[in-house]
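Q: Here's a chain of 238 amino acids. Please give me its 3D structure as tokens.
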Amino acid sequence: MGRAYEVRKASIQKTGAAKGKIYSMYAKEIYQAAKNGGTSLDANAALKRLVEKAKKEQVPSDIINRAIDKVNSGADESYESTRYEIFGPGGSTVLADCLTDNLNRTVSDIRTVINKTHTKLGAMNSVSYMYDNICVVGFTGLSEEETMDALIEAGLDVIDIEMNENEVLITGVPNDLYAIKEAIIKKLPNVSFDVDELTTVAKTKVNLTLEDLEVFNKLIEMLENVDDIQHIYHNVNL
């Protein structure tokens, strides 16, 4: 299986995460998207996509609405996006993307994790170059050939198309996400997208065993408990 299948699997696994963490993550991302691009879902594609994803992950409507209403009410919270690059055991690497209103707090929390797991915080781009940024769109209702025709008609050249049973999984460059979805909608108007991701995947993977795997699992578990971390990417086969 290719990268799109890997993202599909990660998307399924995310539903097992703590609900409070997911709610907080979407509240911040939705607020920031509304602040940057406006509160109208029709005029702000990034906001519309986030709201649709939040609803699929069963984030309550009042949390979604409150995040948008904060912008309408003139609230001026300020979140900064930052990425931490980590070298783990046995050649493992981790990217931790944060959205924070207090950079000092975030740095302190990350360094606590690094110190307790005896891992190493890398400089900017020391790890990122080993990863690719991609978009993945997944849906059912078309064959691989019909999907290819839809993309060709839209003038799109994607990275890959996979079939996972009846599900079509398209991998493309991040800037093509909305164009890919529009091409599929044009061919299949009532489509429901099971996967709609802008994500980061490792170019190569490593296998860990014994103590290295134990340390890595502890690292990921501790990072998942850092409130300001929105997304975690790594290069380990699990």
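Q: Can you summarize the key feature?
A: The two ends are 14 Å apart (CA to CA).
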